[in-house]
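Input record, target 12 of the design panel.
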């Protein structure tokens, strides 16, 4: 998560994560690890722009306006909002 954050990323979307990656996201406060309800790798091309709506818990494909549901971040969101557990 630190390398992605250092490159300007603030969130990642995947159907699932390794536990250590998810925990490092919350510990460092670098990234919001959103989990998609469905597999999205076939829905996007490399370089396509997407917008995450934190309130609606959706990711929108900018080129088509198509929206995909995300799972709630739960208790990890306020930790990341605060900059992680090391802040």
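The sequence produced for target 12 reads:
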């Amino acid at each position: 998560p630190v390398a992605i954050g250092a490159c300007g990323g603030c969130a990642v979307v995947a159907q699932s994560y390794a536990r250590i990656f998810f925990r490092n996201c919350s510990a460092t406060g670098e990234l919001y690890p959103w989990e998609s309800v469905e597999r999205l790798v076939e829905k996007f091309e490399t370089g396509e722009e997407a917008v995450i709506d934190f309130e609606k818990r959706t990711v929108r494909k900018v080129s088509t306006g198509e929206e995909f549901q995300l799972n709630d971040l739960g208790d990890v969101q306020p930790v990341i909002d605060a900059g992680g557990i090391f802040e």
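The longest strand covers residues 11-14.
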